[in-house]
Amino acid sequence: MMDEYRIAKRLSYIGKQAKKAGQQYNKKYGKDNWKIGWKWGEDILSREEALNHYETSYVEYFRNNPERLNWLLARASDVYDIAPSDVHSGYDYNKQQGKAFHLQDIAIRRAVRELGKEFRGDHLVQVRQKDCEGVRFNPGIIPFYKPEMIESPKAKGWWKATSIEGFWQSNKVLLVIDDTKKDQK
Q: What is the pTM of this model?
């Protein structure tokens, strides 16, 4: 399915401009003629595949830093990114309620489950803002488990270059239908 597409350009952080960017891509390439992918060496990953790497980074981080994991599990009854209602997403990356996507809380939940652990704390812990209790679990801080796979030049932003967010933003590409391949089928 990804072989029907070609890379139109490299992207990075879109944030609040996602809706506007989508409208521009629809206008330029046609609705359903584009999608976002992530480079992985010579390959292109789907969102789900890229999220697997995003999540694996949390699993590896917690394996290598059990004291950090234990700290989180002892305090948090669950984690959230933007709003406490984020917990309603559970383990489903596609279950988004707010205006902005939240991934790190879901990835952390899934990593905790993968490691056979459970939250035992007495309150929700936010993992987004620089002044929140769980800032140390922000994807802009947590290292990406395969930093050599992060595309160069690395995208610049509020994240560390070799962090999970560094991967997410640096490897993001706009894919468009490759008409030359479509005609060959």
A: 0.91
